[in-house]
Design brief:
By secondary structure, this protein is of the alpha/beta class. The chain has two domains: about 190 residues, 2-enoyl-CoA Hydratase, Chain A, domain 1 (Alpha-Beta Complex), CATH 3.90.226.10; about 50 residues, Lyase 2-enoyl-coa Hydratase, Chain  A, domain 2 (Orthogonal Bundle). It is built from ten helices and nine strands. Helix 4 runs antiparallel to helix 5 and helix 8 packs antiparallel against helix 9. It is globular.
Length: about 250
């Protein structure tokens, strides 16, 4: 049974962590499979939006110590690039968190652009209780998304938060009943697919790269992308579709 499933439905790709009997705990096989799935999504010109979810009742119980972290520490496993570090994907990613997410599971969700949670989901970063720290972006992304005080509470104390609290914090976009999780993620994905794909990708890239820049540098990057899409076929198609009162047929160029 594949540790990570890849399903393409039109322009939407759903990537599923598939070790439900182990609460989708991340071992080297899942880590590598997720990296390859993300590269396939990135390189597929017909894929526009990606959804990351998991099988069973848990999103992910985090990194498996014996099957991932110890081999990583000892040098017998060299982690491939992932969306948490080293793999830049400018296409939109939606995390559909179906249940409890801990440690690396939370960090995978944080590396996505949009987070939709089941009412049964919780988020927890328990690493310091094991003498470790979050190592896949938790200490960097979380304080950029919530207040530094709340990030410190979640990281220093390792306390889980509910889906509703995550929503109140602005950490997630929507909380839905479990049976509506994937339908909602796909509905949001289809709405994004209606927009100009080149514009969406450049907007994401500007947002993410701009975080590491001064305001002036970020504005220059934004202007460069703005002028690029201003000259694109998609922009001309968008104008023509508006004039003709029809849906545009974007081609991503």
């Amino acid at each position: 049974m594949a540790a990570v499933l890849y399903d393409k439905e039109g322009p939407i790709v759903t990537i599923t962590l598939n070790r439900p009997e182990a609460l989708n705990r991340i071992d080297s096989e899942i880590f590598t499979g997720l990296s390859r799935a993300m590269e396939d999504f990135r390189d597929d010109p017909e894929a526009i939006v990606g959804i990351v979810t998991a099988a069973g009742n848990a999103f992910s119980d985090g990194a498996h110590h014996e099957k991932l972290l110890i081999p990583w520490r000892d040098g017998s496993f060299e982690p491939p690039p992932s969306i948490t570090r080293g793999l830049n994907i400018w296409k939109p990613l939606i995390a559909a968190v179906n249940g409890p997410a801990r440690g690396g599971g939370v960090e995978i969700a944080l590396a996505c652009d949009i987070r939709i949670l089941s009412e049964k989901a919780t988020l927890q970063l328990p690493e310091v209780g094991r003498g470790l720290i979050p190592g896949w972006g938790g200490t960097q992304r979380l304080p950029r998304m919530v207040s530094s005080a709340k990030a410190a509470e979640m990281i220093f104390m390792g306390v889980p938060i509910s889906a509703d609290e995550a929503y109140r914090l602005g950490l997630v976009n929507k909380v839905v009943p479990p049976d509506l999780l994937l339908p909602t993620a796909k509905e949001w994905g289809l709405k994004i697919c209606e927009k100009g794909p080149l514009a969406v990708r450049r907007a994401k890239e500007a947002m993410i790269r701009g975080r590491e820049m001064s305001l002036e540098e970020g504005l220059r990057l934004e202007l460069a992308f703005f002028e690029e899409v201003l000259r694109s076929e998609d922009y001309r198609e968008g104008l023509q579709a508006l004039a003709e009162q029809r849906k545009p047929g974007y081609k991503g160029r």
